[in-house]
Amino acid sequence: MPKTPVTVIGLGPMGATMAATFLEHGHPTTVWNRTAAKAAPLVEKGATLAATPAEALAASELVVISQTDYTAMYDSLKDSTHALKGRVLANLSSGSPDELRRAGDWASGHGAELLTGGIMVPPPGIGKPGSYVFYSGQEKTLDAHRETLRALGDITFVGTDVGLAMLYYQAQLYLFWSTTTAYMHALALVGSAGVSGEQFRPFGTALVSALAGDGPMGYLRIITEEVDSGLSPGADNTLRMQAVGAGHVVEAGQEAGIDTTGPTALKDLFWRAVDMGHGDGGLSSVFEAIRAPAT
Ligand code: NDP
């Protein structure tokens, strides 16, 4: 059975790999990029280079967009809005949820439909086992294009509000960046005393694995249960004790001569939760300070 045609707009590292993946799966693939030269390797593999964004839109009902941000989409399509009618724009670019909601209105105002996606792998992971994409928008539209989009990774539908895909995506990114940055801080801290990264890695690995586990350090489960129940017992490790400890992490960084921006922000957040009255609660009561930003 012939495969459904697809258009890819944006040929940065992500979009180019997406287009190559569609080609590998046998989809007739049309591409457009502001800098047309980036299409050359894809044309060699069988892609069609559209001369204009309007031509790219005309080529396929499903138009996958992967650009730096949503401004790039408007810049690319603003002179081709007449060609948007009947198209499904699956935009997998980064943005804020409200920006995506505005883009949904913009698309429907031109007779198109926006599906939003947050893709959770870097270019080499696209279409490979473990790759997944958070999608939001109309589920029946996603279902209609499921077979094509499945080439990029597992499809995780998170809701009809087009902002949701980016809420999940940004939540995951913050978890990823804060964890990896905290690990770099740990390496710099022990490195200041001549401890190598490889000497420390087993301890970092054990801690991160334990956080996701079911043991006494299984804090993803513990915090989820406490946040959901609204109960954060301090028991034998109160938040006040941990706020004092967070201050020592800052002091250790200062003594080591490394940047302490991250630990200082953490310490300040802990103390704000203590000042809100959660000093005798547990670690999860920091959630209350996160939900109530400082004015
Ligand atoms: P970039 O974020 O660098 O995107 C580059 C693409 O955006 C190019 O096609 C570029 O065109 C286009 N672009 C940027 N500004 C404009 C504009 N004003 N008008 C027209 N086109 C524009 O590269 P990536 O491919 O890495 O990322 C794409 C998206 O995927 C981003 O939103 C990113 O956050 C997200 N993402 C990236 C991951 C990664 O590991 N790289 C992982 C998961 C998501 P030109 O070639 O002409 O400059």
UniProtKB/TrEMBL annotation:
**Pfam families xref list:** NAD_binding_2, RedAm-like_C
- Tell me yes or no: is S-adenosyl-L-methionine among this UniProt entry's keywords: no
| This protein's UniProt keywords | Oxidoreductase
SUPFAM superfamilies recorded: NAD(P)-binding Rossmann-fold domains
Tell me where in this chain the NADPH-dependent reductive aminase-like C-terminal domain is found: 161-291
Gene3D superfamilies assigned to the protein according to its UniProt record, in alphabetical order: N-(1-d-carboxylethyl)-l-norvaline Dehydrogenase, domain 2, NAD(P)-binding Rossmann-like Domain
Any one GO MF annotation of this record: NADP binding
Q: Where is the 6-phosphogluconate dehydrogenase NADP-binding domain?
A: 6-156
Q: Which residues form the signal peptide?
A: none
The family assignment reads: Belongs to the HIBADH-related family.
Q: Which PANTHER family match?
A: CYTOKINE-LIKE NUCLEAR FACTOR N-PAC, OXIDOREDUCTASE GLYR1-RELATED
Protein name in UniProt: NAD(P)-dependent oxidoreductase
Species annotation: Actinomadura litoris
